[in-house]
Amino acid sequence: MSSKSLHDRRRAAVAPGVSSVIDSYVSHASGGTLTDVDGREWIDFAAGIAVTNVGNSAPRVVEAVRAQVERFTHTCFMVAPYEVYIDVCEQLNALTPGTFEKRSALFNSGAEAVENAVKIARHATGRPAIVVFEHAYHGRTNLTMALTAKNMPYKHRFGPFAGEIYRVPMSYPLRDTLDGPAAAARAIDLIEKQVGAANVAAVLIEPIQGEGGFVVPAPGFVSGLHAWATGAGAVLIADEIQTGFCRTGDWFASTFEGVEPDLITTAKGLGGGLPLAGVTGRAAIMDAVHVGGLGGTYGGNPIACAAALAGIETMRELSLADAAVAIEAAMVPRLRAIAEQDPRIAEVRGRGAMLAVEIVVPGGELTPDPATTAAVSAACHRGGLLTLTCGTYGNVLRFLPPLVMPAETLERGMRILEGAFASVGR
Ligand code: PLZ
pLDDT digits over 199-240, tens only? Predict the structure, then answer.
């Protein structure tokens, strides 16, 4: 089967609302490359959107999944519980920032984790309002569409949306020039005047924004909001779905913000490539929910849990947080060198192996240039490098290599990227 014939079949069988970045179809994949059904190799700067931090088909994950499938595939934790679910919760409680007592609950997807974090925060505080940020992305379900900022493609004509969601400005150093405390004060002022501190159940934030453009808030922004939330009797929920599991150079990005969130949502990198998500948080908050109030048929599926444990073991043994730091050290000077030659790059930003360039029309106005961004990304694809774009304006080119990517593969990817920028005319 060629990609071309698969694409024809896809067009006849798959709903067009579900799209793909490339129209080559995958045959197999490893720690840094995908091979398509036509035999072409792709260098993977996407990791399935920050999922395969340990690589595709990581040996320990394959073995753990095989062993679990042979023992049992599904009983439903709410019906007949099993050990690997507890193991994963113990790992989440230990690895997330904060030495206080924690509990976890497991779900299937990132959006489901965020929905449950909101349910828990509302239940524990008895308050309705959820504060979110400009450019935020939290999912595509009804509640999480309301939490997500961007209309196209995520929300357009999919409303009406859930209520009691309030959006305030994000710290966006390239565009707002405010330091972290000043940006936090701006957000807090709006919350107090327009929402009312006493109504706020939770402030929900990505410590580095993902789909919204890899926006890294100025230091002191997240911690300022957390301090305010604590004083106001609200909880801080860190959405670490994209930033989590060694991606930014530590287990979680909140650590770099000096924040121990009250609740943390995880997914993506947690499952080692299988669908698994979690909500982890302070025991007092998590314990507030009545028995039976949380759950779902597949949440914490035993195969996904076994994969997660093997993935976490892999991250530990291969020191993948350090690997993310090494990827940053290898890539950032190269990206800065491209930016020095190319006035279309307004900023190189990110942390660890979560890096991006923001692309604008040269001239100092910072006018977003989604067309050039798409053209550079397409040139990468023609060269065999799988890249993704993001950002409210579609003008951010982002890089999310698997953390196990060999240095030589990363180097080949960087050369394709350099060539792509050179080939797209100004
Ligand atoms: N929170 C911070 O990054 C998923 C979505 C891609 P799900 N991001 C990729 C797309 O176009 O659907 C994400 C995220 C953050 C929540 C989510 C949602 O996670 O597992 O996709 O539901």
Answer: 999 999 999 999 999 999 999 999 999 999 999 999 999 999
Instruction: Please tell me the distance from the alpha carbon of residue 71 to that of residue 302, in angstroms, as a whole number.
Output: 10
Q: Is 155 in the pocket of ligand 1 (CB under 6 A)?
A: no
pLDDT in tens, 357-386: 999 999 999 999 999 999 999 999 999 999
> How many angstroms separate the alpha carbon of residue 145 from the centre of ligand 1?
11
Our mutation pick for probing the ligand 1 site, out of 137, 144, 266, counting the most ligand atoms within 8 A of Cβ, is 137
**CB 376, CB 382: distance < 8 Å:** no
DSSP-assigned states of every residue in 376-424: HHHHHHHTTEE-EEESTTS-EEEE---TT--HHHHHHHHHHHHHHHHHS
Burial of residue 254 (CB within 10 Å: 0-12, 13-18, 19+) is buried
Q: Is the CB of 7 under 6 A from ligand 1?
A: no
pLDDT tens-digit series, residues 2-51: 999 999 999 999 999 999 999 999 999 999 999 999 999 999 999 999 99
Q: Tell me: pLDDT of 426 over 90.
A: no
Q: Band the pLDDT of 396: cuts 50, 70, 90.
A: very high
Ligand 1 centroid distance, CA of 287 (Å): 26
Which of 106, 241, 264, 354 for mutating ligand 1's site (highest number of atoms within 8 Å of CB)? Answer: 241
- Other beta carbons within 10 angstroms of residue 48's beta carbon come to 17
Handedness of CA 336, 324, 102, 276 (dihedral sign): positive
Identity (one letter) of the amino acid at 220?
A: G
174-190 pLDDT, tens digit per residue, is 999 899 999 999 999 99
- pLDDT averaged over every residue in the chain: 98
- Cβ-based neighbours of 182, under 8 Å, separated by 6 or more: none
Ligand 1: residue of 242, 247, 276, 279 to mutate (most ligand atoms within 8 A of CB) is 242
If you measure from the C-alpha of residue 5 to the centroid of ligand 1, how many angstroms do you get, rounded to a whole number?
A: 29
Cα(140) to centroid of ligand 1, in Å? 8
The answer to whether the beta carbons of residues 55 and 404 sit under 8 Å apart is yes
The structural domains of the chain, ordered by start, are 3-54+319-423 (3.90.1150.10), 61-317 (3.40.640.10)
Quote the ligand 1 centre to 244 CA distance (angstroms): 12
Own/partner pairs for 10-18, CB < 8 Å, 24+ apart? Answer: none
Give the C-alpha distances (Å, rounded to integers) separating 123 from 161, 191, 285. Answer: 20, 20, 9
